[in-house]
Design a protein that fits this description.
Layout: H1 15-25, H2 55-66, E1 76-77, H3 90-96, H4 99-102, H5 114-131, E2 135-136, H6 143-158, E3 162-166, H7 171-181, E4 187-191, H8 202-208, E5 213-219, H9 231-240, E6 244-249, E7 267-271, E8 287-291, H10 295-298, E9 305-310, E10 317-322, H11 328-331, H12 344-380, E11 398-402, H13 410-419, E12 422-423, E13 426-427, E14 438-442, H14 449-464
Parallel strand pairs: 1-12, 3-4, 3-5, 5-6, 6-7
Antiparallel strand pairs: 2-8, 7-8, 9-10, 11-14, 13-14
Helix pairs in contact: 3-12, 5-12, 6-7, 12-14
Amino acid sequence: MTRLIVHPYIPNSIPKTKEEMTNEIGIQSTKELYADVPQKFRLRRRLDLPKPASEHEVKRHVEAILSKNKTFKDASIFLGAGCWPHYVPAVVGTIIQRTELSTSYTPYQPEASQGMLQALFEYQSMICEITAMEVSNCSMYDWASSLGEAVRMTTRLTHRTKALVPRILHPERRATLQTYTRPIGMRIEPVKYDLETGQLDVEDLKTKISRKIAAVYIENPAYLGFIETQVEDVAEIAHDHGALFIVGVDPLSLGVLKPPGEYGADIVVGEGQPLGNPMNYGGPLLGIFACRDDMRLIRQLPGRTVGVTDTLDGKKKGFCMVLQTREQHIRREKATSNICSNESLCAVAAAVYLALLGPKGMRELGEAILSKTHYAMQLLAKTAGIRAPMFKSAHFKEFVVNFDQARETVNNIHEKLLRHRVHGGKDVSEEFPELGEAALYCVTEMHSKEDIQRLAWALKTVLGEKS
């Protein structure tokens, strides 16, 4: 006999309620709801579930499982590549946990929460300030979705169907870009790079640029950490052929590098996770999206934009969502953007973080990361069997380490490092075979001098070990 289970946490588990529902829709039992599922795919036994447990017992069980995880606190971690270890001041979490912010993270109506709208307006203002652009939306899903929307935006404006991107591009961003652009018939073509410096091959760009190109995209710093030095030249080449110039950034680099708006960028995208958002197992992230002051661009800007105005008596400020007609909840299939439930709470965290640091703090943080990156490269370069950095360029936060002389695979080295409680960089050998056995290492303000020395010691140790 099947035992009836009535549980306060399981909706509609009361027999009388089930009976009323089945009678209403004209079936004898819930099994009829699965009539279209072939018999061979149906489970013919009871689920093998553990016996019921108290809340306390379940908590202990889950905590025992979670204790197997190793976090940034348990080892020295030098992995970045899109989600980086940065310090999040306590005040950031305190503010975004306030219910008036955490429960209204995605306002739709123009008259929605004035507090949330003001916070997003402040975020937009600070993104414009650090990128030297005039207009920003109030968030995207991540860097990859920002890039996809940016390239789609350029084809709507230019009516061209081709974009040029660096050969050195994060594979996940490239895949997302393809997903966004393939349905509209766009073609994405890579531009070569200098194997010695990593810099974009401007001559190759010149051979591929034409009046058919909608956009030229670069990243600064590049995915592999080096700083592009030919940005003005690339901007000029793009604009001379009527293409729009898109720049992808790590926002923390803008404390020490010239912002894209000062070297000709039309659109700026990037990853806002470093701005007060923890790694959190890889997400949620925060897509940055800004453009210059051109109504042609502004009207094609994806996502939402918050505006501000004065009340009729001029005594108060009023905030509201503006230019929403491009969104799918109003224009449906004619919408230019598919951004819906955006990352507004992450944007508020970024706003708190940026306000807390200010211009001076941003510069000091950027200088600290630059200094530690240089120290790590210098120290690793002294280790036999290692080439660091692989590219002869200035780097910010990340750099490629080559292990060809060590005659070891990156994977084997990584496994050995883990035994010494050191998490190495990302293996990029398959992404860029021409780089040989190579890994992308990351150093931020979270890494102390001792952490970097420990990495150098661990690498020296494992390279001397026999497999």
